Every structure is written in C-alpha cells, then in structure tokens.
C-alpha cells in the first residue's frame, strides 16, 4: 500500500487537489506495477484566484520555483504492517516548460 500527499501550494498558500493526492486515500500498488494519476493545473491555481495566463505573466527568475510547488510525501506499507516513509521531495511547476521540476537539494526554508 502507498500513502501519498502532494502538499500543493500556490505562492506558499496550501491548496487542496483531490483526496487521492491529499493523503485521504490509500493507493494499492504491487511489485512491477506502474501507477499514474493526474490533476488539472489550472483548477489548482484557480483556487487561489490565478489563471494559467496570470501565472505565466507573473513568472520571473526570482519566483519560478515558488509559484506552484508540491512537497511529495510517500509512505509504503507492506502486508505485514512494516512501514517505510521516504524523505519529502519538493517540486515546482515550470510554467515555461510546462512540467514538474524536482528540487534535489535540502533547504532550510521548507515547512
């Protein structure tokens, strides 16, 4: 089983996506299984009053990694109850390249 939380934020303000991404649903995964999910980026930004066009227009080198972020938390549990929680991985959405970019270094600013 897999517990996951995306912890999405628009300019630092938390935004709910969907139960499957907010840690309220458990994903069942099996060895060698590929699992994917999706959510609409504009639905997320609109919850904070922003459109895609607004986010693209506001993008700068100073805020590119803070406009839309995701702190991905994954916890695996096996059938015997053993748990393994992976370190949180921060990503930001690049509105120019239209993709999620993982941040591979640790920062003291992370909440």
Topology:
Elements: E1 2-5, E2 8-10, E3 13-15, E4 22-27, H1 41-46, H2 52-58, E5 68-77, E6 83-85, E7 89-94, E8 99-102
Antiparallel strand pairs: 1-4, 1-5, 2-3, 2-5, 5-6, 5-7, 7-8
The tally of domains stands at: 1
What's the Cα radius of gyration?
15 Å
What percentage of residues falls in helices of 4 or more residues?
A: 10-25%
Q: How would you sum up the major sheet?
A: 8 strands, antiparallel
The low-confidence parts are: none
Mean pLDDT: 85
Write down the secondary-structure element order: EEEEHHEEEE
Describe the structure.
- A hairpin with a 4-residue loop joins strand 7 (89-94) and strand 8.
- 12% of the residues lie in helices and 35% in strands.
- It has one domain.
- Strands 1, 2, 3, 4, 5, 6, 7 and 8 form an eight-stranded antiparallel β-sheet that branches.
- It is built from two helices and eight strands.
- It is elongated.
- The protein is mainly beta.
List keywords for this structure.
mainly beta; 35% strand; 2 helices; 8-stranded antiparallel β-sheet; 111 residues
Brief overview, please?
The chain has helices spanning 41-46, 52-58, and strands at 2-5, 8-10, 13-15, 22-27, 68-77, 83-85, 89-94, 99-102. The chain is mainly beta. The chain has one domain (2-102).
């Amino acid at each position: 089983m897999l517990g996951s939380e995306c912890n999405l934020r628009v300019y630092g303000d938390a935004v709910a996506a969907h139960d499957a991404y907010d840690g309220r649903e458990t994903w069942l995964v099996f060895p060698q299984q590929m699992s994917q999910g999706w959510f609409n980026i504009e639905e997320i930004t609109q919850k904070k009053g922003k459109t895609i066009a607004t986010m693209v227009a506001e993008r700068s080198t100073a805020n590119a990694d803070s406009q839309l972020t995701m702190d991905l938390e994954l916890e695996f549990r096996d059938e015997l109850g053993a748990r393994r929680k992976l370190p949180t991985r921060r990503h930001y959405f690049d509105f120019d390249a239209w993709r999620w970019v993982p941040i591979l270094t640790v920062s003291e600013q992370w909440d």
